[in-house]
Design brief:
- The protein has helices at about 5-25, 25-50, 55-80, 85-105, 120-140, 145-175.
- It is mainly alpha-helical and about 180 residues long.
- It is globular.
- The two termini are about 35 Å apart.
């Protein structure tokens, strides 16, 4: 196991820890675990580039770890009323569309490369900041204010734009001829 994959593994292990802390009402500790997990996300990318340790399993596990952590946090924050439920549905819709597109492309023998779009990266970053801010306000007992609402709206906009980018990529790939089997 290389360093980047180890860091990704730590992020996956952080998910149940985060969930348990959140459900126990220890929002400050949940915030610390979430921020720590985000640091491992940044570090695994840096380590992979610096050490030139790119693996097929890492390319699959890294985005899965990001999505599991992010969606777990958004689910908890939505269910507790700290974030609007429509943000969760928007995130789930985009992910279902992406996985459906991958399935369709695979079944129709079309080659594709899974790479995040620029707005996909922006969406991930803004959702993470929104989660951190919501956790911070929750830990301090502060109700949602204009900053959290603004972050939520910016996150949603990035999610929608990234969905449109992925849709355009999917349409372009579907217009190509299938690869011979």
């Amino acid at each position: 196991m290389n360093v980047p994959n180890f860091l990704t593994g730590l992020r996956l292990v952080a998910v149940p820890v985060f969930v348990i802390l959140y459900l126990q009402g220890d929002l400050a500790a949940a915030l610390a675990v979430f921020v720590g997990a985000m640091v491992t996300d940044w570090l695994d990318g840096v380590a992979a580039r610096m050490l030139k340790q790119f693996t097929a399993i890492g390319a699959i596990l890294d985005p899965i770890a990001d999505k599991v952590l992010g969606i777990s946090a958004v689910v908890l924050l939505c269910l507790s009323g700290r974030l609007p439920m429509w943000l969760l549905w928007l995130m789930v819709f985009r992910e279902v569309c992406i996985f459906s597109a991958i399935g369709i492309l695979t079944r129709t023998c079309r080659a594709y490369a899974i790479r995040p779009t620029r707005f996909g990266k922006y969406a991930t970053a803004f959702v993470a900041v929104t989660i951190i801010f919501a956790l911070l306000q929750g830990a301090r007992g502060v109700p949602a204010g204009p900053i959290l609402i603004s972050l939520t709206l910016i996150s949603a906009l990035c999610i929608v734009v990234s969905w449109a980018q992925y849709l355009a990529m999917f349409i372009g790939l579907m217009r190509r001829a299938p690869q011979p089997a």
